[in-house]
Structures are given as structure tokens and as C-alpha cells.
Amino acid sequence: MNDVKSYVPPFKLDQPMDGGAVGEVIASADERFAVGDHVLHGLGWREYADVPAKHATKVDAALAPLSAYLGVLGMPGLTAYAGLFEVASFKEGDAVFVSGAAGAVGSQVGQLAKLRGASRVIGSAGSDEKVKHLVEDLGFDAAFNYKNGPVAEQLREAAPDGIDVYFDNVGGDHLEAAIGSLNVHGRATICGMIAQYNNTESTPGPRNMALIIGKRLRLQGVLVGDHTALQPQFVEDVSGWIRSGELKYSETVVEGIENGYDAFVGLLRGENTGKMIVSLTR
User: Fold this and answer.
1) N or C: which end of the chain has fewer CB within 10 A?
2) For residue range 49-67, what is the model confidence (pLDDT) as tens digits?
3) Sequence-ordered list of residues with C-beta below 8 angstroms from that of 157, at least 6 positions apart, any chain
């Protein structure tokens, strides 16, 4: 919401919020879309949307639940896929640390790494319940509650041999801890900075940035729009893993557009497990 330069402009007051949405076509002037089709679009927080055909993508309810196209098969899923495999140049045998690991992106990153042969996957989350979910349900090798102590100490305990890849959804003390634990030629994908979203004052950066030089680390941001060429392979791989049961996903569903604000604030507070979904009922 801050009026600062970013890759997207700040949301405007008293205007509908944009964002990913799946809706049912109730009228169409384009032969590619029939009444009753389901489409993915980006007009977000509204009950009815007039969507240009070029900005709509038909989705298949027979392939996966419609909500999956907002998460595991949607923008968060492709972000995880591209950020791990293309940006971080993940390779078999890498040890991977994921912050915000119980969210829609983080939970998928960890599972993708395991499916592709990671030697160890560690996640951080904000509750003991989420930590248990990461290890027992999603197959992470280790996880910790960042509220239970210094992140750097907990990460060193979970990854005594260091890490090769860091997928950052948080920033702040997590990024500093990861820089300290990354091995020589380690790679970090910078996906989110939820620790400093909407701060009104500057947040101090990691105090150990000089380690980037000696370790020859690579830190790179990821924007999903740069990786649309991966979409066909991403859908093929991920839908297959979903059908086989090898990749699991969670959703936190809030009913009613009138509760969208609470869902959004809950997301920033870390109250969700997996993708936060607002469901509109007729």
C-alpha cells in the first residue's frame, strides 16, 4: 500500500483491488469462450467482471479444482517452479531452505525440491502447527518456528552442513541467516519481503552482506511474468504430481467478498496455511 516505486503501482483508495480470480462466464462476445466456461483473470475483488478476452484464460475443472488455478497451478505455483528451477538453478543434491514455507509459494518450493532430489529441505513458519504440517504432511526434512528463537541459530541447527539454495519469502532476519548458512556458490531467489511490507520506516538490511563476496553467492529476484515460457512444462509436471499424490497443497478458504479484507490482513499476519482463497457464493 506504500506509495513507493515498485514493480506494481500501489493500490488506490476506494477502488476495487486487482488480483487473480476464477469466474464463470455468464455472457460472451468471443467465440473462444462460452457461457458456463470457467476462466482465470486478474480483475480480482469483485462479484462481476467485464474481462477483455485477451486477458482471460480458460481453465479445466476436470483437471483440478477451480481454486487450484489460483494457487498450486496458478501464479504462486509458477513462481515456485520458476524461482527454484530457473532462477536458483536448483540441481539434484542441493540443500534448500525456504522461508514462509507454509504459504502457497513456500510449501510448493519445498515439495518441488524434494521431488527433484534435494539432499535436505528446511522450512520456517510462524507456528508450531505449521511446522508440524511441513514435516509430517509435506515431507520437509526439518522445519522451525521462527518465533521460538533467533533464526540464524535455528537454521544452523537444522542445516549443520549449510545450504545451497535459499528461497526467500520473508527478508529481514531470514535473509541474514540464509546468507550466513549458504555454502560457496550458493544461490538465493528473492521472491518476497513480507517482513517489511507496509513499513513506514526503512528496515535495516542484512549485516553480513560482505559474505556474498567471499562465498561468491548469487542473489536474484523473481517476477513470474518473466517466466511464462515455462507455463506448459509447469502445468504438465505439477498436474501430474497432483494426480499421483506426490505433491500436496493446502488452502485457507474465507467465504464471502465482504470478508475479503479480513482474509487479506490475515494473509499478512501469517494466519493462512497454503493459498488464501476468498470464495464467492451465490
Assistant:
1) C
2) 999 999 999 998 888 889 9
3) 144
